């Protein structure tokens, strides 16, 4: 069953036709500023090499508490997904715009929603509950949802394939490091803790997102800074993180500047790594130990300095990275140092293949 995967980003829509054996038959990236997909460009793409899909898998950021697994989309599901926009106002509209555009061109092809929150749907109550008044939690359904579930789910299923059968890890700390970044504690294939929460703002320092900030600090600022709640939200989402610290959200640029002795960039990397190491320690505690540390995502896959420096201070956990393997790895690979008791792995982020798998499963249920 060939599956067309649709992944809507901040300014583009990535389309991939995944064959029956998970091979990429064709792919195309369309420009989509302000979540607007050019209908003529989309029509040309879907009538060309990307044609012939038996089903379409759409990446949807938020499934709320209702959608905890990939779901075949009908009119009722589409309506419900629109209602979840208030939980992810920056991300959900982009996904739904792409969904509507593709469905309009392929009305007879089954469509499946694959959710970034679903992998974390069964977080233990201790990990998913905020210590807030019950009246707020009950009225608004406040909880930690977690995100990047398609990426962490791929890690849970495929990281063990990089390890010898007798050493297959049961406790994995998955580090999805890209423009957005989150960690996940995976026990026997299940998410038991993660760094993102009610929104994708919680947790690690990211490209332009702040990560966790003392809520008291934000309340203090609101009382003194001439900004509205909307302006503060925009600053936390688009003007913070590496961009706020170093003036650039691209880790490649920040690392280059740091290597040339730029103090501001070096400090930004230090803050990034401090939060990353702290988060890995927290995920390890949630698991009661760790068997494998996995790096994925754009930064996780392509920044050996970040992997080496993050792992360099985790020797007390049994983590060690081989310098040559770490600097030379391309694609999936094992970069564990000799004598380390924890496997350190690099795994390509393949949300597209995870989406295709989930779509096939949903349609065969």
What can you tell me about this protein's structure?
The protein has 365 residues and is an alpha/beta fold. The chain is 41% helix and 18% strand. The protein has 15 helices and twelve strands. The chain has helices at residues 39-47, 75-83, 92-105, 125-128, 134-140, 149-158, 215-224, 229-238, 241-246, 251-259, 263-287, 297-302, 304-312, 323-328, 351-364; strands at residues 3-8, 12-18, 24-31, 55-60, 71-72, 111-115, 171-177, 181-187, 190-194, 292-296, 333-334, 343-346. The strands form two sheets. A six-stranded mixed beta sheet has the order 3-2-1-4-6-5, sandwiched between helices. The radius of gyration is 20 Å and the shape is globular. The relative contact order is 0.12.
Strand and helix map with partners:
Layout lengths: L2 E6 L3 E7 L5 E8 L7 H9 L7 E6 L10 E2 L2 H9 L8 H14 L5 E5 L9 H4 L5 H7 L8 H10 L12 E7 L3 E7 L2 E5 L20 H10 L4 H10 L2 H6 L4 H9 L3 H25 L4 E5 H6 L1 H9 L10 H6 L4 E2 L8 E4 L4 H14 L1
Parallel strand pairs: 1-4, 4-6, 7-10, 10-12
Antiparallel strand pairs: 1-2, 2-3, 5-6, 7-8, 8-9, 11-12
């Amino acid at each position: 069953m060939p599956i067309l995967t649709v992944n809507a980003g901040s300014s583009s829509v990535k389309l991939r036709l995944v064959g029956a054996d998970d091979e990429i038959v064709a792919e195309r990236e369309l420009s989509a500023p302000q979540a607007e997909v050019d209908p003529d460009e989309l029509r040309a793409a879907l009538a060309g090499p990307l044609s012939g899909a038996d089903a379409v898998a759409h990446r949807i950021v938020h499934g709320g508490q209702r959608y905890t697994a990939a779901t075949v989309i009908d009119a009722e599901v589409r309506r419900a997904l629109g209602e979840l926009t208030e939980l992810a106002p920056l991300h959900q509209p982009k996904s739904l715009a792409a969904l509507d555009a593709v469905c309009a061109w392929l009305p007879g092809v089954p469509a499946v929603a694959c959710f970034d929150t679903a992998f974390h749907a069964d977080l233990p109550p201790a990990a998913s509950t905020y210590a807030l008044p019950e009246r707020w939690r009950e009225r608004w359904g406040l909880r930690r949802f977690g995100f990047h579930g398609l990426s962490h789910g791929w890690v849970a299923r495929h990281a063990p394939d990089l390890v010898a059968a007798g050493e297959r890890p049961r406790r994995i700390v998955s580090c999805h490091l890209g423009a957005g970044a989150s960690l996940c504690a995976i026990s026997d294939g299940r998410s038991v803790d993660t760094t993102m929460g009610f929104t994708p703002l919680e947790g690690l320092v990211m490209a332009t997102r702040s990560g966790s900030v003392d809520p008291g600090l934000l309340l203090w600022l609101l009382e003194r800074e001439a900004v509205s709640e909307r302006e503060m939200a925009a600053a936390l989402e688009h003007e913070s993180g590496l961009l706020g610290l170093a003036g650039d959200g691209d880790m490649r640029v920040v690392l280059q500047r740091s290597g040339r002795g730029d103090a501001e960039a070096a400090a930004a990397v230090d803050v990034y790594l401090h939060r990353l190491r702290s988060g890995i320690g927290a995920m390890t505690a949630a698991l009661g130990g760790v068997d494998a540390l996995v790096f994925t995502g754009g930064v996780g896959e392509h920044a050996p300095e970040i992997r080496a420096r993050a792992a360099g201070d985790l020797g007390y956990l049994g983590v060690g990275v081989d310098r040559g393997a770490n600097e030379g790895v391309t694609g999936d690979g094992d970069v564990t140092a000799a004598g380390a008791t924890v496997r350190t792995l690099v795994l390509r982020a393949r949300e597209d293949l995870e989406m295709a798998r989930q779509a096939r499963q949903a349609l065969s249920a």
